[in-house]
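Page header: ASSEMBLY MODEL / four components / 448 residues total.
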Amino acid sequence: MAQPNSEPRAPLSRELLLRAAVAIADADGLEAVTMRRLGEAVGAEAMSLYHHVANKGDLLDGLVDLVMAEIDELVERTAVPDDAWQPAMRRRILSARDVMLKHPWAPRLFETRPTMSLAVVRYHDQLVGLMRAGGFSYDLAHHALHALGSRALGFSQELFDPAAGAGANSERMLRDMADQVPHLVGMMTEIAHDDPGSTIGWCDDQAEFEFALDLLLDGLARRR
Amino acid sequence: MAQPNSEPRAPLSRELLLRAAVAIADADGLEAVTMRRLGEAVGAEAMSLYHHVANKGDLLDGLVDLVMAEIDELVERTAVPDDAWQPAMRRRILSARDVMLKHPWAPRLFETRPTMSLAVVRYHDQLVGLMRAGGFSYDLAHHALHALGSRALGFSQELFDPAAGAGANSERMLRDMADQVPHLVGMMTEIAHDDPGSTIGWCDDQAEFEFALDLLLDGLARRR
DNA sequence: AAGGGAGACTTACGCTGTAAGGGGAGCGGG
DNA sequence: CCCGCTCCCCTTACAGCGTAAGTCTCCCTT
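Prediction written out in full:
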């Protein structure tokens, strides 16, 4: 008997924990990432994890860094080096968005973390670098970061998400309170009429995101 | 002895609970609003609160409605009825921002709530109404809501908040990693040089918010 | 072979939201 | 007049959270 233990018992490193945590978050959401559940996923007890991460905050910070690395990787893979500043920023931000869409829990995580990781700071630094190369003053680049806000990282909290309203009956719900929100009902029915295919999911998030992004970038181009 | 109980024992209504919860959140943050702490604040046990709110989610929804009511009240008080759409929206959104600044926990609460309250829907409806009156198509108004995102409600998550980084040494921290983020260091030092008064709090959040808002509104005006 | 440290384990504490059931005051009907 | 019903508020308890503290068991080094 070469293996006295029936369990192979993987070596249990910080990397392993982070990847397992991503898997849990992707599958069941960020709130499902608990120390006990993570321990179970890697075949260990909750307290054993503390030999590889300082505490839960450290683990979450590790997740942020992992997501940022994924963004960097995607940016590098799609890089066309000598773009003008505007398409370059656009590409970078849309790459970030692609990664965020793969990890729906990431936006909330980024917003919740009390400190900003070095990876996030470096990401913004690179955006400022693009703008500087495009002739921006530091002052305008500074304004630009604030104008973009979370959109710079590829997301903007969708407060106005009709799909969140109990699924398929949200359209009906809106119609029921037609007297209370006449303009929204008008807006929804008209837009749904133009594109009768999808009444739920009646707006294309990707297109909306790009519209808003271009609105901002165009405005900045005009002020440059 | 007219009062057999030494404690006056207020009647303990939903309104009372909500107001006490706001007080706790204003004082110690949203995470301090627990059922036990709230019970203590109103002189009752935690479980007694469930006679007036369905559960904690219901309580938080009540807080959202309370904040929205405060916004509506402020908008009504500062209303100058027949503005053009752009200053009207600007005023409305900046009123919302004023309320959010009074309740720093509100943005996170709004983003965290799984469903959108009627009050929030009505707020957006009124924005669409303003845009319609200003000649917007429903399609453009729809784009506009997405472009504004959380800014429509007076906040935009400040991911890039230097004050969050351990207070007064964040400038020094940035300088220490100058080789890693050269553009940010350049930006910070130049802007701090222009206004040597405040190195921490070196950017005026209100001005930045208004810059971004106007960037968006101007862009929409041009596309109208 | 002995010593030591790394990495896993067990136990326990205080915190959370809330399910379940007990008790007393006020009030309406026989 | 008094019984019983209905509100409120109470106490108790449970499962789950992050994690402090202490213990055991290998394996590597000297």
